[in-house]
Amino acid sequence: MVIEAERLWFEANRRLRSWEADVTGQIVDTDIDGLLTAALLHDHFGWPIMGFYDKATLWLDADIEPPLDLTSVVWVDAEMLWPGARVLSQHVPAQRRSDLRAVGTLRASVNPSVIAGHAQVGDYANKYPFGTFQWAWWVLNRDPASARLDNGRGVGTGLAWMPDGGFQSVNGRFRDNCIRWATQHMPGSLMSPLAHGDVSDVRASVREAEAWLQQHSGVRRGWVNHQWRMPIREHLDDAVDLSDANGFGQAGLILGAIKTFYAWSRELVLPPRYRAWRGTWMKSQLKGLSDGWLEGANAHRIVSGAAPNPRDYYWTAPGSPVKSGRALSDILPGPAYASRVAV
Q1: Which one, of 336, 309, 302, 280, lies nearest residue 106 by Cα?
Q2: Is 143 exposed, middle or buried (0-12, 13-18, 19+ CB in 10 A)?
Q3: Cα separation of 87 and 73, whole Å?
Q4: Domain boundaries defined on the chain
Q5: pLDDT tens across 91-141, in order?
């Protein structure tokens, strides 16, 4: 499916404008794409970070009591399917194109793959191939010059190509799709300057960006293949304090380094204490899931979900795998509340 750049931008902004005025905070994925996007949204809108979600556990500001007001929260780089959720992300949550209409949350999702009509079945190879950070920068119409792209080299270019491994895809079998999205579907994107030229050495810029973030944040753990993800083994307790020694503190240090690089001046303060709410992370094969299965999200049976490839589907059920633990179903509003939330 081919989508015109103007229509893509217009529809993304129409969806964003339909709920952005209600948002007072972000819940963010625990990887480098989530942090880059959260820092950008904080600079642009002033939205603070209320918590982190890694598709299995929601670590939320401990002062927030259930039920969570979904109208006031944007889920960043997380494919929430729970009724009423506001989402800014880029993965492929639809198994089939019919899901894009049938699953209520997807009809308001600010997601390029969703807006362009891509699903796991039939059109996966043409999906959006970059991170939420690059997508959000383009949707917000931010000036690429302020991204310090340095003529297609250096830390700024590395950060533009780092999230979700775009630097790998553009030099592999998805090269044509990457170039098409960077230059045609999203003209003026952060990737556009390099995509118009030689992309063979983009990994060098990504490597330089990782080294810069490590040096200026002091965070050297959690990096794999130039991607950072919050270490979670320290976070199995019911409530966790913010500390430079754990993943929350490390996320704060990386966020500080990101702000420094882009010279963003808004003060960004993380919650001092977190409470864990757990779901059950599942992996299914597409061939084992029936048509219309994803519509279970409308009935509060699926919290979030996305297809990482054409064969598998990863999703989260709302019940906790730990009997004594708090479940996602205990913090996310249920059917009675959802009936009052426009979808």
Answers
A1: 302
A2: exposed
A3: 9
A4: 5-338
A5: 999 999 999 999 999 999 999 999 999 999 988 999 999 999 999 999 999
